[in-house]
Structure formats: C-alpha cells, structure tokens
Amino acid sequence: MKLNNLHMQGSDIDSYIVDFDRLVDEAGYNKFDMGVMIKFKEGLQPSLLREILLHTVPAPNTLAGWRQKARERQTVYKS
Question: Rounded to the nearest 10 degrees, what angle do helices 13-27 and 63-78 cross at?
C-alpha cells in the first residue's frame, strides 16, 4: 500500500528513488518485474514523465533505465 501511495515530491528525484527502492525491497518485489517499472513511472511527477517520454526514443524498458533517464531529465528540466 505504501508503494502504491508513493509519489515524487517536488523536484526531488533522488529521495523518490531511494524511497521507491526501499519499499520494493520491503514488499519483496522483483526489481526486474514489469509491474515495478510501471509503479515507478506512475509515481513520477507528470511533467518529468512527459519530459522522459518526449526526449527518450525509445523509452526505457527497465527500472534501471527509467531511474537513469529520470535523473538526467530532472537535471535538464531544473536548469
């Protein structure tokens, strides 16, 4: 339930990633599961998700790829 309610606060992508990973581990989910990647995307700020989808072709297909692109696009977006 905590994982379902987790959303990125403001522009703090690093805290979101740390909290997300901790909750995934606590729940015993597999980080390579497609559902975990979808949950990660759902918790991102809508504007950041849009940035990633608009500027990343093809879109990431792993949780690690989404984390990396979220950090990259957040850095560009905040600048």
Answer: 160
Whether 23 and 43 have beta carbons less than 8 Å apart is answered as no
10-residue averages of pLDDT along the chain (79 residues): 92 95 95 93 94 89 94 78
SS3 35: helix
**Beta-carbon count within 10 A of 47 CB:** 11
Residues in the chain: 79
Closest-CA residue to 13 (of 79, 71, 78): 71
Which pLDDT does position 56 carry in this prediction?
A: 83
